[in-house]
Amino acid sequence: MTALVVKQHNPPNAEPDLAQLIQYAHTPEHLVYLRNHDDEENAHEGYLLTVDGAVETPFKISLSELSQLPQTTVEAVLQCAGNRRSMMPASTDGIQWGAGTVANCLWSGVALSTLLERAGVRSSVPAQHVHFAAERGPVQEERFYAGSVPLDKGLKDVLLATHMNGKKLTREHGAPLRVVVPGYCGARWVKWVTHIHLSPHESANHYMQRDYKVLPPSSGEEAENGGHWDNEEPITEMPLNSAIASISASTVKGYALPGPGDKGSISRVEVSLDDGSTWSDALITYRGGRWGWVLWEYQFHTGSDRDGTRKVKGVALSRAVDEEGKTQPREGTWNLRGVCYDGYGRMEYSLE
Fold first, then answer.
1. Which of 126, 214, 331, 352 has the most CB atoms around its CB within 10 Å?
2. DSSP label of 62
3. pLDDT in tens, 204-216
4. 213 with 249, same domain?
5. What CATH number does residue 302 fall under?
């Protein structure tokens, strides 16, 4: 964890320095953020994955057996729902994350559809959701951590990963097996998954029903007593986003993250050096495909005042634009849990 800024020691939660993070197209393990609701050392030994629920043939499968199935690789950015929480316009609950809880990686393993084809989806009890559970022991608010995704998303995009960037997953990042749900918030990418269950209903787990939801701005303390949780949908797809990582003498650099829907891929990133009065297109230096991030930079010349000194102070902004021309709002919408912040990337600069 030495390369990470520790936000919480127990359970371990930490994020990397943003300027270091964007130096790599594929995030190396030492810069992948940590988000935990329990002690990551609480591992499951003698691993077997259970697949059951609304299926014709429930079964258990070992890691060795999984390794014999067809393998696939997907590039996708893992991002915490609370990424950029500290930029919210007012105080929120939760760890005050900066913009470093993102990691763009190559994930390799077995497509969920391969296992569900073997199990057979039972037609007599139509399944609409796939539950993923890490039944390893108690977490902060539950007996174990779990979540679910719609079945159609599971069949189309979900991967059960054993490797990250060509190397075996480490325990802190979900070994021996973690769920990868491209485009969805990291809360649905269940680490240490032990159980896959098909159901007509969403998971009832705390982290599906009483956390990781965008509550209305009007909600406050009453939400903690259940006032609004039942009225809002769990977070799935993450919003179009961008962040400024560094500003040097002549260059602004950052990342941008794809948004929801079929047209959510990033078409361009725009940068302003005058707090939004004027905008210019940034240069895309890396594009990670539909589910990956975009790295960008913008070269600028500060000019000089009449006395010959450079103009070196200001506010830089960034905004991503998707294939439909949609862009980020200037300010993200405040919510109690501080999730899905998508306001302009922003950084004050003072260059000498």
1. 214
2. -
3. 999 999 999 999 9
4. no
5. 2.60.40.650
Mean pLDDT (the chain) is 92
The structure's pTM equals 0.94
Q: Which of 41, 17, 45, 47 is nearest to 31 (CA)?
A: 17
What is the extent of the structural domain holding 259? 241-350
Give all strands (DSSP E) within the chain, no chain letters.
4-8, 13-16, 49-53, 59-61, 72-79, 102-111, 129-134, 145-150, 159-164, 167-168, 178-180, 195-199, 241-247, 251-257, 266-272, 280-281, 283-287, 294-299, 313-322, 345-350
**Structure confidence at residue 311 (pLDDT):** 58
Torsion-angle region of 200 (φ positive above 0: left; ψ -120 to 50: alpha; else: beta):
alpha
Is the distance from CB of 279 to CB of 335 less than 8 angstroms?
no
CA nearest neighbour of 253 among 277, 211, 229, 283? 283
H-run or E-run covering 209: helix 206-209
Beta bridge partners of 237: 184
Q: What is the pLDDT of residue 123?
A: 77
180 in the same domain as 82:
yes
